[in-house]
Amino acid sequence: MPSIPFHKYQGAGNDFILVDQRDQRFLSRQDTDAIRALCHRRFGIGADGLILLQKREAYDFEMLYFNADGGEGSMCGNGGRCIVAFASHLGIIGNSCRFLAVDGPHEARLRPNGWVELRLADVTTVEKGPAHFFLDTGSPHYVTFVDDLQSVDVFREGRAIRYSERFKSQGTNVNFVQALGEGIAVATYERGVEDETLACGTGVTASAIASYLRASASGPQTVPIQAKGGRLEARFEPRGDGFTNIWLCGPAEKVFEGTVAR
Fold first, then answer.
1. Which of 39, 76, 82, 97 is catalytic?
2. Which one of 82, 97, 200, 249 is the catalytic residue?
3. Residue 39 is a catalytic residue
4. pLDDT interval class at 262 (50, 70, 90)
5. Band of the pLDDT at 1, cuts 50, 70, 90?
6. One fold for both 3-119+252-261 and 126-249?
7. pLDDT of 205-259, one tens digit each?
């Protein structure tokens, strides 16, 4: 049986299997069962998602992202930061790069301290409800604010929103946010994983933007964020009814590497 060489990376506890497919194809979009098995935390390597790094003309590389359920996902912010760290490890980029993902081109930079900065797509609209915000930062996010994040049953309450009448067909990620003295704390239920994750890059970015709107702030922002798996940072600028120059920043670290039988 052929084996697949892989690397395991994590960004603030959001963990991914990364596979270099520049010279050989190990997996494709049709390999849903295999990808799900590899991500299984008891019978596989274990991860929130799997990412393929592939060649793409006019870009440093292409990122193909799959959720833990084996299906191709929308943009993953922490996954995007991890694949940049992986590309640096492979020696195919320097301190900056431009790559293609499912939602279009992305820029990224590596800080000297090991943090990776990833530019996300502009946000064009934000839905403001009586008790929530809903916006797309590369993936759809429902954001609601709470007084005590530790008391929230993220799995139960997040799942109830994700499978509500409005969202059950396409799904949504659900973020619970607590305002801190400086910045915010965020916990996220992720569709595709169908569980709480220790961090969600596009989710904390959506939460930072929602926090800005909730506070009626103005001007460019840098928001410190505490996820359960570590610290992150979001930067953005308001533009009209939306936001631009959006950057997700944080650690992206190699955990281990190996080979696995398919």
1. 76
2. 200
3. no
4. confident
5. low
6. yes
7. 999 999 999 999 999 999 999 999 999 999 999 999 899 999 999 999 999 999 9
Structural contact between residues 231 and 114, judged by C-beta atoms closer than 8 angstroms: no
249 catalytically annotated = no
Domain 3-119+252-261: CATH architecture, name and number where available: Roll (3.10)
Q: Domain locations in the chain?
A: 3-119+252-261, 126-249
Q: Please check whether the domain covering 126-249 is classified as CATH 3.10.20.30.
A: no
